[in-house]
Amino acid sequence: MKKLSIIALAGIGLLLASCNKNSTQTPSQEQQVAEKQGDVFDVDTTSSVVNWKAFHKGGFAPRWETLSVSSGELSLAEGQLNAGEFVIDMKSLKVDPSSVTEKDKNYAELEGHLKSADFFDVEKNPTAEFKVTKVEDLAAATTDAVEGANKTINGNLTLQGKTLNVSFPANVQVADKTVSVKAKLTVNRTDWGIKFGTNGADPAEWMISKDIEIGVDVKATKP
């Protein structure tokens, strides 16, 4: 598998890129999950999606992928988001064919490689999870925050069986029977042990940006 070209490797799809100058998350240790209170909304798995984007070093050869949300719940207390979680189906990873422009590259081959033990090992780790630990009002959005950000969400992100806590601005919208959460954050994949090369000096690892962008678009409805 490691004979794939460096450009093909740049599709490392589960997390975002440094070329857009987004601030990379510095995760902390796993925190206590927030208790659900008030009204509980079921995540709509047909309209919810997680996007990943990654690059070569310097922003070259970008690749972007989508992942399905297989289950989840969000809870509201007094009309405000206070807790929730969702599960990501890692086996659903799909590379956007339009992101693979080189004539000698194949997006289906890249999908298979990303799902293999070289990267996400989806047979061993078929799901990833996010669980809210805290929600606060956002005082001021950073320049790289998702449009309309109004909350800061902290939560435990589990990838490859490892759980770390991340924090990011989010656009949370609440209506009569629906709630939506949109967010984006940049993380360092190696914090979760996602590496391809044997060490940092290995060209297979060195040429791939460690920063990966995660885009979250989760919608939930009242049963």
Automatic annotation (TrEMBL):
Highest taxon of the lineage: Bacteria
Tell me which InterPro entries the record gives: Lipid/polyisoprenoid-bd_YceI (IPR007372), TTHA0802/YceI-like_sf (IPR036761)
Q: Which stretches make up the Lipid/polyisoprenoid-binding YceI-like domain? A: 40-221
Q: Which UniProt keywords apply?
A: Signal
Annotated signal sequence range: 1-23
| Signal found in the keyword field | yes
Q: Could you tell me which Pfam families the record lists for this protein?
A: YceI
What is the name of this protein? YceI family protein
Source organism: Chryseobacterium luquanense
